[in-house]
Design brief:
A hairpin with a 6-residue loop joins strand 1 and strand 2. Helix 1 packs across helix 4 and helix 12 packs across helix 14. Helices cover 33% and strands 21% of the residues. The mean pLDDT is 96.
Length: 461
Amino acid sequence: MQAVQDYIQENKDRFLDELLDLLRIPSVSADPAYKGDVLKTADFVAESLRKAGADSVEVCPTAGYPIVYGEKIIDPAKPTVLVYGHYDVQPPDPVELWESPPFEPVIKKTEAHPDGAIYARGACDDKGQFFMHVKAFEAMMAQDALPCNIKFMIEGEEEVGSANLGIFCRENQEKLKCDTILISDTSIIANDVPSITVGLRGLSYLEVEVVGPNRDLHSGVYGGGVANPINVLCDMVSSLMDDRKHITIPGFYDDVVELSEAERKKLNEAPFDLEKYKKDLAIGDVQGEAGYTPLERVSIRPTLDVNGIWGGYIGEGAKTVLPSKANAKISMRLVPNQDPEKITQLFKQHFERIAPASVKVTVTPHHGGEPAVTPTNTPEYKAASMAMEMAFGKTPIPTREGGSIPIVALFEQVLNAKSVLMGFGLNSDAIHSPNEHYGLFNFYKGIETIPYFFAHYADAK
């Protein structure tokens, strides 16, 4: 293992240069204008796996963007680890808020990253994180020190709901057969406080449209006599929560699993500095469901948020218009035992029921995903914990994250394997936002940690 770590140190600069080349390709899966770049990125990933030592590397077509697959089977009798990641990225918008172009990576020092951080779309989510596995694999192969079989499945549609991943997994169960799935698409508490994610919220994502008159109207001639769809939409959205920030959709909380007092106490032992949190976000105070701490609100409680809202005239200057329609995109983060399809249906029924007769309402579901909780007594969790302890010098804290990775539940259902969520980002890395970045410390620490995981997992199995 020392030879592997020496190889990593000797090749750090090259690893970084290769990551920067990957980040320069704008693989935005949500925008068809980037289709060529997304496909180019898939080829880049495939070539990286080949150079690192993988066999049977394929760019596997789907109904959408391809999935890159590669493997190295050293001994069928040894345990097999499936590494999952995604090469697609979020749109960079609003581009004008970036301090540097989103697909021209630069390295800057920050308070959180005194050694420097890579600023680029996808730096942390998830190019920088899955690329750690490629480089760790290369290091183990170079020193003939790969102790387990390894398979890679890197997809190109995670940021748009992974619509084709389930189909691919079901059609390729034998190819993907493994003992565990290793995923780095999450964060740690801090660079001096390692953690492993053991819980993720689910997701229901949908769009609503409120239509009033059959055309835009003059707000002077018709204002006060005809329903304004924007006003109605705002009223309806506002009614979805009460003064205690409790979601008012009937049946919404019926299946929520409440944690015990002991579990809640353990969760709140994770370091959390409220003043630093507010300062980082430039907010005067936090807000959320009454009766729960900030850590609980963003991890073990369900939420409802408007992700976008529009209607009427938003161009330069003034236009006194009463719009014909208004729209909003809404996401609900769900906790264990909440069914995304059931929640979507409850929302649809409630939203249609509260609509006044003066408007017509349409609710269009987009995508969703199951919540997931992974146990801490499995060989893969224990291997990850020991690996992080060796790399960081501290035992990692098990935590729950507020984000969603729907494929964790999918993998367990289809591949009958547990996942271990060993991410290395920070919550302050601005993923999905302008100025996304990823610390050099975190990138290198991930590459250093992953070989330890393989060694401990081989021993445990």
